[in-house]
Amino acid sequence: MAEETIFSKIIRKEIPADILYQDDMVTAFRDINPRAPSHILIIPNKLIPTVNDVEADDEMMLGRLFTVARKLAEQEGVSEDGYRLIMNCNPHGGQEVYHIHMHLLGGRPLGPMLVG
Ligand code: 5GP
Predict the structure, then answer these.
(1) Structural domain boundaries of the chain?
(2) Which of the chain's ends, N or C, has fewer CB atoms near its CB within 10 Å?
(3) Which helix (H) or strand (E) holds 10?
(4) Are 52 and 91 in contact (CB under 8 A)?
(5) Which stretch of DSSP H or E encloses residue 63?
(6) How confident is the model at residue 79 (pLDDT cuts 50, 70, 90)?
(7) pTM, 2 dp
(8) Pocket perturbation via mutation, ligand 1, pick of 32, 86, 104, 114 by most ligand atoms within 8 A of CB
(9) How far apart are CA 43 and CA 22, in angstroms?
């Protein structure tokens, strides 16, 4: 059984976060340490520690991350100029929180690397 992270508490609203979107599959909230004017984390409500733990049954839920990313990019006004989606895996990928999450970054030209 995977160990819960702070993100499970955010999903259950046990600790505060600036939640922008939530449904039965995913939750999206602003990163506490933003590296761009828009820096949002989009996560499955189910605890999957890393991309290495993804299974075929998760495909629908993980697809939802992208439709929510598209909606939030529109909402943030960054769709036209562009943005970046990042998922880090394990130490070499720069992963710090072991509950998979998609970073959505935008609002300025991003340069080569940002998170990790
Ligand atoms: P990773 O390096 O694992 O891909 O990214 C984890 C991200 O989670 C980091 O960008 C970090 O700033 C963010 N983060 C860590 N703890 C919290 C928290 O308690 N609240 C929020 N909103 N973001 C967090």
Answers:
(1) 6-106
(2) N
(3) helix 6-11
(4) no
(5) helix 59-76
(6) very high
(7) 0.97
(8) 32
(9) 10
In the structure encoding, which two tokens stand for residue 46, read together?
A: 């189910």
Q: What is the pLDDT of residue 116?
A: 67
Residue found under tokens 């340069």: 111
Please, is 22 exposed, middle or buried when counting C-beta atoms within 10 Å of its C-beta (0-12, 13-18, 19+)? Answer: middle
Identify the architecture of domain 6-106 in CATH.
2-Layer Sandwich (3.30)
SS3 of residue 94 by DSSP: coil
Q: What is the largest CA-CA distance in the chain?
A: 41
Q: Give which of 68, 67, 61 is closest to 47, Cα–Cα.
A: 61
Q: Which two tokens stand for residue 18?
A: 């600036």
Ligand 1: distance of its center to the CA of 79 in Å?
23
Q: Looking up tokens 């998979």, which residue turns up? A: 100
Q: How is residue 2 written in tokens?
A: 């995977």
